[in-house]
Write a structure and sequence with these properties.
The protein has 13 helices and 19 strands. The protein has 487 residues and is of the alpha/beta class.
């Protein structure tokens, strides 16, 4: 085939040639090294239109609204898909006002991939957790680079498969835990790895979730309602069991249901666990145990504390990791002194007070405890941190950067920029599926433990099974509804 040429006699990067350019750039990005500009900063380069990546986005409501808008700063948004036409209409109006071309519109991601497969280079996925794997894996098997929102998958088995398919297809992947792009998280990772707090002994992570209805207020399925005329409920359900529509499930409260969401751990774990997990270079746990309240078959528990044990990458004693969710859950009932009635015995589900060295605990955050000190991040995304006790580290100087930095602090934008740049062969993604799938697997094992409270589950990561609990093994994956498959 004769190659098309530019006016100055150079080969054009469009059509098949353009796709080849992106393909080989992605191969280089996946197995190469970080490419950074002066002072280790990633530049926001201006690209010609025919060099820009063509992206489709599945889910343009909720988090998908901002995700799909942000990617237009760095790529061509050529197709959008959402089960609710109100979301796609809103997105089309927004793009029109911004003077951007109108993408093709779909309400079924399968039709979108069938019809647009030859026209797109990459696919974003910002939909409920139970649909993450099926959409992402189908896109990857078509050779599409993928950006999938946290928590990446609904089950442990899906997380493992996501990593395997990404590696097999050699695509560029990124999970949407945007704190990864902040300079604060990257400097915190560098500080831990440089030995600022010595050898890590234990990690404590806590969240103010849940903020949606679940136990004890909600422990049964809501009544069936008519599906809105704008909504494709069958595609929203995807591989999940047949379930009647109710506005209390979609568009947001699905997070609290076992069937669709991943609870507090899935919602925030990929953010709040990210800094200590990456900094300590953890892999997969060997043990996990949970205690929780109001365990039921419909929703996640009212509160939970999960304890993990990880091999220490530097050798020596294992590292213990503790997760706390549901501030102010209750352990049992007690008698009220004034009325004599039995009332919930409330607790604040946080790490032990002495670990904070006199600093007031935040609503969400993490403590990475070493034998020389503690790194405390008082927020979900790990974008800020301090070393404790404060007086011991007054003269502390941050180590020289070993990870790239972005210009500006637009963390969500920068996650997309890093992904698009990697597709074009400029650096690689930090939250790629090799890393993110392991982070998610660790988090989701906590949800399995929550359904087997009190049992110390022993995890064999190579065989992907618990060696001492067959009931827990049955929760590592779910059966897909007829007509829905990962193959």
């Amino acid at each position: 085939m004769k190659r098309r040429m530019t006016k100055d006699g150079k080969p054009r990067q469009d059509g098949a040639n353009r796709r080849d350019f992106l393909k080989y750039s992605a191969l280089a990005a996946g197995y190469g090294v970080w490419v950074a500009t002066e002072k280790n900063e990633v530049a926001l380069a201006q690209q010609a239109a025919n060099d820009r990546v063509n992206v489709a986005w599945v889910g343009v409501g909720g988090k998908g609204d901002s995700d799909s808008s942000q990617v237009t700063k760095f790529a061509n948004l050529v197709a959008i898909c959402d089960v609710d036409e109100d979301h796609t209409n809103k997105k089309l109006d927004e793009l029109k006002k911004a003077g951007k071309p109108a993408p093709k519109v779909f309400n079924d991601w399968r039709k979108m991939l069938d019809e647009m497969g030859k026209e797109i280079d990459a696919c974003g996925v910002s939909i409920p957790d139970h649909n993450h794997a099926i959409v992402t894996i189908h896109a990857m098997k078509l050779g599409k680079h993928v950006y999938t929102q946290k928590p990446l998958t609904h089950t442990v088995a899906e997380a493992r498969m996501m990593r395997e398919v990404a590696n097999e297809m050699k695509i560029v992947s990124q999970m949407g835990n945007q704190g990864t792009a902040t300079p604060g998280l990257r400097s915190g990772v560098e500080a831990i790895q440089a030995g600022a707090i010595g050898n890590v002994k234990e990690i404590h992570i806590w969240t103010n979730r849940p903020i949606w209805p679940q136990a004890p207020k909600l422990m049964k399925w809501p009544q069936a309602e008519s599906v809105p005329s704008t909504m494709n409920w069958d595609v929203w359900l995807g591989p999940a069991p047949e379930t009647p529509y109710n506005h209390e499930i979609a568009p947001f409260n699905w997070r609290g249901y076992w069937r669709f969401g991943t609870g507090a751990m899935g919602d925030m774990g990929c953010h709040t666990c990210n800094l200590p997990y990456m900094g300590t270079e953890l892999t997969e746990p060997t043990k996990v145990k949970a205690v929780c309240a109001d365990l039921n078959p419909v929703t996640y528990p009212a509160w939970a504390t999960v304890e993990y044990e990880f091999p220490n990458p530097k050798g020596g004693d294992p590292i213990k990791v503790f997760w706390y969710e549901g501030h102010f859950g209750y352990v049992n009932m007690k008698k009220d002194r004034k009325t004599g009635e039995m009332v919930p015995d409330m607790i604040q589900n946080l790490p032990p007070t002495p670990l904070f060295h006199g600093v007031k605990p935040s609503d969400s955050g993490s403590l990475t405890v070493g034998d020389k000190g503690t790194l405390y991040s008082p927020q979900d995304y790990g974008g800020s941190w301090m070393l404790l006790p404060k007086e011991k580290f007054e003269d502390f100087k941050k180590p020289e950067p070993s990870l790239p930095r972005f210009k500006g602090n637009r963390e969500d934008d920068n996650m997309k920029l890093e992904w698009i740049n990697a597709i074009k062969g400029e650096g690689k993604t930090l939250s790629n599926f090799n890393y993110a799938s392991r982070l998610v697997e660790f988090i989701l094992l906590g949800n399995v433990a929550n359904r087997n409270p009190g049992d110390m589950l022993e995890w064999d990561t190579k065989e992907m099974k618990f060696t001492n609990n067959e009931a827990a093994n049955k929760l590592l994956k779910v059966e897909y509804r007829d007509g829905w498959s990962l193959t």
